[in-house]
Amino acid sequence: MTEATGIVGEFLSLKEETDADILTMQCGDFYEFFGDDAELVAEELDLKVSQKSSHGSSYPMAGVPVADLTPYVSALVERGYRVAVADQHETADGHAREITRVVTPGTHLETGDASAQYLAAVVRHSSRDGDDYGLAFADVTTGQFQVTQLDAADVGAVLTELYTFAPAEVLPGPDLRNDDDFLDRLAERSDAAVTLHASASFEPGRARHRVRQHFGAETLDSVGIADDDAAIAAAGAVLAYVEETGVGTLAAVTRLQAYGAREHVALDATTQRNLELTETMQGDKSGSLFDTVDHTVTAAGGRLLRRWLQRPRRDRGELQRRQAAVAALTREAMARETIRETLSGAYDLERLASRATSGTADGRDLRAAQETLALLPQVADAVAQTERLADSPLADALSGADREAAASLAADLDDALVSDPPGTVTQGDLFRYGYDDSLDAVIDDHEAALEWLETLPRREKDRTGITHLSVDRNKTDGYYIQVGKSETDSVPDEYEEIKTLKNSKRYTIPELDEKERAVLRLEERRHDMEYELFEDLRARVAEHAPLLQDVGRTLAEVDALASLAVHAVENDWSRPEVTDGDELAIDAGRHPVVEQTTEFVPNDLYMDRDRQFLVVTGPNMSGKSTYMRQAALITLLAQTGSFVPARAATVGVVDGIYTRVGALDELAQGRSTFMVEMQELSNILHSATEDSLVILDEVGRGTATFDGISIAWAAVEYISTRIRCKTLFATHYHELTSLGDSLDTVQNVHVAADESDGDVTFLRTVRDGPTNRSYGVHVADLAGVPEPVVERSQEVLDRLRDDKAIEVRGSTGEGGTTQAVFDLSSGQFATGGQNERVETDGNPDASTDGERGETLDAETEAVLEELRDLDVNETPPVELLAKVQEWQAELDGE
Ligand code: ADP
Ligand code: MG
Q: Which residues have CB less than 5 Å away from ligand 2 (the ion)?
């Protein structure tokens, strides 16, 4: 490409100025894209590309009308692009263009999605004591701004925060942007766009200055993060970025909230996924816990409830406050429904506050703000009039917002705006008559002129006797008098013909021309005046952004609490007792999601210091996973302030919930490998404390039996003797139940099944004590495994059980074979021929293979050979499935 000049040249030099992915530049009535940008946009958005010639070269060009820019930019930003917008403005000699804003995934105001949209900065400061991480999260659409610092933390904890907030855009600090491991893991866990923002804005001194400037000098002290340099660096960088992108919402970010990890229950990403908090394992929203319990009627209420579930609390005071409000709401059905009915008319005030401060709010937005502000007194009245609600913490929640200020702003807006304003702010019709005297005068003149025009046809018909006569207006002809063909002969002399149509002619008269000029003048005047008045009004609303946010959050809280009450009533949930103790006691508990679609069999659970580790056994599909998840979800709900699906429950506050599901269960989802399973186990063993709740579901399953059993065994010992947290451990190695004999705090429970005449009926009831068998053979039978194999498995199983031993075979480096026997009653290994048992029971090699030789045919041998050689960890799940099918076919003799 040769050096471009003219419009293309201007475009290209603006493009140099910005690090945005795409630039669009206003050229009169269009926003244009040139060159590569034009081609990219054309492809993404299905726009037409034309060629623009400029000084002998030709450039691709695509454009959209000025009025349509927003949806195009939104679509690009939603695809992860950062779009710079250059506007055109008048100057003394023509016009100039400059980049006025950069719209990015994290600063996108026009989002159509009601969920929170976070922009995050994450900073690492390394020192001898370890790595401190600072995190800041801003939602420019609502003005939320949250900051935290994780001292001497590992990157897993940071990724958990990022997973929980699910930011649309992340700004990694100088130290992290070159950390490939961090960036890879971030990409694995999140869809966030990663933006490398100027390192200088992360610089501690500069960041601190900016934060103080924005939130006030005392804020850092008052929220207790004055010494948290990493947190301040993150906060400063976010502020700088929002300011530089020019979305104009910085003013809506009115409050700095600092939160500490101590306040919340630790829930890492895997746990959130396993418990299906906001989406199911398959990635569907429907069927998640949030989807099940969400009865909110406003977008803001939904956002808040979701946050409560993702960030359960540890402090009992706050939990009891929420519980008491929910309890009162469950008992006042009438008032509750009145309140919800009222709330259903609410708009998203936090978002409206951001639109006001950014100058994008229109008349409808301000009307929406007015109508919503006016709901606060209504809700407050409904609460005040119901004694039980008035005496509950709900009343305190409502006093969080300044009711009088809200009422007065609502009244001001109501006085100003017509009841149904148009969607544009430049075409008038926004203000009520009586709002502004000079506007009223213009309106009077304008209306009088319009009235004159409206009555002109009647006057002219009377005067001329013409019957087919009308007055109309269009763009090219302005106002005109139209007369039907048949009567054009009778038009008076002063009618000046301007156009001939098929069936009529158009005329004008001097008075009409004059009135037309007056109307146009008045119209313009009126539009200008209204626009000016509107800007004033919008600025006044922007000044009240904190009030709008307060009222918005208050209404959201009432909505979320009422939603919890609705769910509790409809599903017969009860108020749990939340204590500082260690007890977790659930009387007739259910799984909150499964109970929606199943005739659920309730189950009890009791755990405390002396009974802190339960080994859960039972047949496949009997309900082990459900039982354990139910315990985790009841704990989580209790620490959200919610009622729980149980007849009664006592929940000792936990500091974290950790769940892991064995790789085999997850393989069905096509995600996990044994390696991941082990990483996750290791993570728990590092993170859990004695105040945590741990759920291990078939851990160790993703590998060959002997590794699996060994790892599971060691994990049980470590957790129950070292970490000593409440743990539920489901295993299909029912051999592990013997751990209950040797470890004090480990007890067995099993999900009962009824077995008679070889038929197994699942009772779904959990009982104390171990299962006496694994039912795996039964499942194999059900699955259609050929009879000889089923029978033979039963024999082998019986033998193993009698021996209370499992044979382990492995290769030594020299190519020889060693045998080991893992004695389940002692938990000890014995190797080689020195072992008594091996000798008395005979050489496993000889005995097993010998028998196999007699009873197994060649096909079965071949299948077993292949099975032995297959490396499970290296084979993709799909291939494994295909393999299994192939073997089945071979065994069936096909
Ligand atoms: P496991 O982990 O033992 O293989 P799951 O917990 O996955 O079994 O449960 C298997 C099936 O049984 C699930 O479809 C679940 O909906 C159902 N189920 C589990 N527990 C109950 C219960 N208490 N009442 C009714 N159905 C249950
Ligand atoms: Mg299971």
A: 625
CA of 762 to the centre of ligand 2 (A): 14
775 lines ligand 1 (CB under 6 A): no
State the Cα–Cα distance between residues 159 and 181, nearest whole angstrom.
Answer: 12
Q: Could you tell me which residues come within 8 angstroms of residue 7 by beta carbon, excluding any fewer than 6 positions away?
A: 25, 27, 32, 34, 52, 54
Q: Which ranges in 544-604 belong to alpha helices (H)?
A: 545-571, 594-597
**The predicted structure's pLDDT at residue 834:** 39
How far away, in angstroms, is 882 Cα from ligand 2 center? 23
- Atom 12 (ligand 1) nearest CA: 623
Residue 591 pLDDT grade (very low, low, confident, very high; cuts 50, 70, 90): very high
- Characterise 42 by phi-psi region: left (phi > 0), alpha (psi -120 to 50), beta (else): alpha
DSSP string computed for 822-865: EETTTTEEEEGGG-HHHHHH--HHHHHHHHHHHH--HHHHHHHH
- Is the Cβ atom of 621 under 6 angstroms away from ligand 1? yes
Rounded to an integer, the average pLDDT of 352-371 is 95
Q: Whose CA is nearest to atom 26 of ligand 1?
A: 600
What's the Cα-to-Cα distance from 157 to each of 118, 165, 639, rounded to whole Å? 18, 13, 20
Widest CA span of the chain, in angstroms? Answer: 132
Question: Per residue in 804-860, pLDDT tens?
Answer: 544 444 344 444 444 445 555 555 555 544 333 333 333 444 334 434 434 567 778
Is the CB–ligand 1 distance for residue 618 below 6 Å? yes
Burial class (CB in 10 A: 0-12, 13-18, 19+), 395: middle
What's the CA-to-centroid distance between 775 and ligand 2, angstroms? 14
CB count, 10 Å around CB of 345?
14
Q: And the tokens for 215?
A: 């939130």
Judged by average pLDDT, the poorest of 167-181, 402-416, 580-594, 861-875 is 861-875
For residue 80, with 0-12 CB atoms within 10 Å meaning exposed, 13-18 middle and 19 or more buried, which class applies? middle
CA–CA separation, 107 and 197 (whole Å): 13
Q: Is 174 in the pocket of ligand 1 (CB under 6 A)?
A: no
Q: Whose CA is nearest to atom 16 of ligand 1?
A: 594
**pLDDT tens digits, one per residue of 40-56:** 998 888 888 888 877 77
Length of the chain: 894
CA distance 388 to 386: 6
Burial code of 454-466, b = ≥16 C-beta within 10 A, e = fewer?
Answer: eebbeebeeebeb
User: pLDDT tens for residues 782-819?
Assistant: 677 888 887 887 777 776 665 554 444 434 444 444 44
Q: Of 189-203, 640-654, 752-766, where does mean pLDDT reach its minimum?
A: 752-766
Q: What is the pLDDT of residue 822?
A: 52
Single-letter residue type at 460? E
Question: What is the radius of gyration, based on Cα positions, of the chain?
Answer: 36
Whether residue 439 is predicted with pLDDT greater than 50 in this model: the reply is yes
Burial of 23-41, coded b for 16+ CB within 10 Å and e otherwise, reads: bbbbbeebbbbbbebbbbb
Q: Is the Cβ atom of 600 under 6 angstroms away from ligand 1?
A: yes
